[in-house]
């Protein structure tokens, strides 16, 4: 999958690689993104797009060697053991090479704190200077307070229904702790370009996924986000790497592939179910996206 320069925390799971063992879903996780990832033994290369939200990584299992850098900067090498933390502030795209050093499975937990929570924490800690507060990037460090708070989120991930109040409270505690211990005032620089918040992106993409049979309508999507068409289009593309119309088509094609493989519906029926007026138009779009006609794709089973 091509890696965009920028995405949202909500969309980050697409690019972290490995097997996702758990992820926060639903309204309880609106201001906090949390996921647990497992990687097999060996060496792995990972390119991460930048996000507006600060990202904490906690190594929960395994010893590894990590080489990391931003953009084309110098490589920094660290040997990382279970319990180590990484804090990546919002900023440039991030590249990482890892190599497992033991037979123990390598697992890590990612936690991103939503900008509304971080803003409140900065205002409390820095007062009138909140606009100039900047988190620092910190690699391979230990912090028993942060680990304890992330453990609470890990426990909440295992619950059938997470508590929105609890998740937000823990997220706020993490934001305040980071502001107190890993942020400083820098009046020479201001925060980067705006991005579509993770919870809002999730709401928009869910809305699109539930209306695949409807014609793409940029006005409706912009209204859902409470933004102008121009501004919404720019922020959506910045967050996902593709335009809203391309994303809508990709959702349709993903569902088309599922229907062709998992059901006996005719190509005509699949086309109509996904909102295409004619089978020929559906086939044209499908071939452009997959390189095969719908019938040829089905015969590949």
Structure description:
The protein is 40% helix and 22% strand. It is globular and about 60 Å long. With 301 residues, it is α+β, with helices and mostly antiparallel strands. Strands 1-2-9-4-7-11 form a six-stranded antiparallel β-sheet.
The low-pLDDT segments are none
Major sheet: order of its strands? 1-2-9-4-7-11
Overall, the morphology is globular
Helix content class: 40-55%
Largest sheet: 6 strands, antiparallel
Give, in order, the helices and strands: EEEEEEEEEHEEHHEHHHHHHH
Give the count of helical stretches: 10
Overall pLDDT score: 85
Beta strand %: 15-25%
Structural class from helices and strands?
alpha+beta
Distance between the termini: 23 Å
Number of strands: 12
Radius of gyration: 21 Å
Tags for this model:
alpha+beta; 301 residues; 4-stranded antiparallel beta sheet; 10 helices; 6-stranded antiparallel beta sheet; globular
